[in-house]
Amino acid sequence: MVTQAYEHLAVVFRGQAVMLSTANEGRAWVSGxxxxxxxxxxxxxxxxxxxxxxxxxxLRGRAMFFHDRSQLFMAYPEAPDDGYHAWALxxxxxxxxxxxxxxxxxxNSRLFxxxxxxxxxxxxxxxxxxxxxxxxxxxxxALAESVQRxxxxxxxxxxxxxxxxxxxxxxxxDSGVGGDWYDVLDLGMGRTGVVVGDVEGHDxxxxxxxxxxxxxxxxxxxESHDPAAILDRMNGLLSSLDIDRMVTCCVAFLxxxxxTVEIALAGHPKPLIRGPDGLVTHLEADTGPPLGCEPxxxxxxxxxRISPDSLLFLFTxxxxxxxxxxxxTAARALFASAGSRAGNRCPEEVADLLARRLPATRKHSDxxxxxxxxYSGPGPDAVRVRRTAIRRHDLRGVGEARRFxxxxxxxxxxxxxxxxxELLVTEVVTNGLVHADSDVDLRLSLYGGxxxxxxxxxxxxxxxxxxxxxxxxxxxxxxHGRGMVIVDELASAWGTAPNGLGKTVWMELETVTSTAH
Length: 517
Prior knowledge:
The protein is α+β, with helices and mostly antiparallel strands. It is 33% helix and 28% strand. A 6-stranded antiparallel sheet has the order 3-2-1-6-5-4. α6 (204-222) crosses α7 (227-241).
């Protein structure tokens, strides 16, 4: 939008700078700018609409033209100075309401003729209509994405010998939100189930159908059905409900006692597996028809055995780049390229690498789910997990989190990491309690020579270390950043991942010693 305003307004009228602003909650917010100093933007961004400033006036619907600096500062003595010498301030109208403001700055004094003023206001009205359409599209997309994310799991259960990480990446703004989902199931007796699926379409209805399918699969899994039986029952349910959406799904059960994977597919791509030698292959399984297409799907279970230190990769077809022959080829190339310092042992790191490389390999026309499960083997590297919950507004919660951390590390014979880990826990738990204003879930995991700390809260905005916040707009929306600078300095690795109702901030430390109990 800023580019269009610059090219069709500033350039045409020989202006040197442009700024677009919107009003929200009684304040002016800069939505984009070009050719203006950052100190000026910092003063305008977040300024109160009750202030006696030109931006406040134009956001209330008043067009103004100032031919030189003396005229501007005589009318508005407290106006911030952008260093230019003439201005055209134009309200952007969508229908009968003002949806924003456009400020054009000129490096020389100039008089605006009546004809120029008329043309500028007509062009501003066209820009306002375009901005209103963008706002409507953003609201619709935000609604669909909110529904989608609320139906995804908030937490992923940790199981002995299995570490799981998942990412949901929505489609581009103009493509809508699809019905991709994932789940990780605690099947009892140490077994873990992983589910990835995709509902046809890119709208709110797709997300709603996804929620129905996900809930039904969770119920069938709780009844101890195997993967093929789950898909058979799900297929019958969709047929009886007469839902006009095709659904693909992959259900896989992993038994860590011997590495057996039991899998059934309904129109879904086969999972990939990267072995301890780094070789990427796919799990052998025939694919049945998508759910809801045929009354008798005839789904079958397929079993294979994977080696310890193997990484399982499930995904949806949104990662297809449109250039590879098929989604399996694209997924295999992407997975093979996403090596990491930790090899297979850090699925969070691999998930971040995959997510960062996705925008270069696809056209954002579809949402995508990535799910990675590392199988450590049944031996002494099995995952150990301890967790505790801290209630919102609990003033003693940070102290309880430190005591929980200290006692857990003493039990795991990792006292040498206690001071650093307690400091990390203090910073991130405080962020969750104070800035996210939510309940906080703290989980410590020990696996593969790594101590992992996970802190979950209900605020989806990621924490941003203040040292890497480079603009006033980012700082206005970032959580308090100084604590995250400490995390960035002390942790071997850290990151953040969205979940169904907020985010998870994770940190890892390499362990010096690791004792079984």
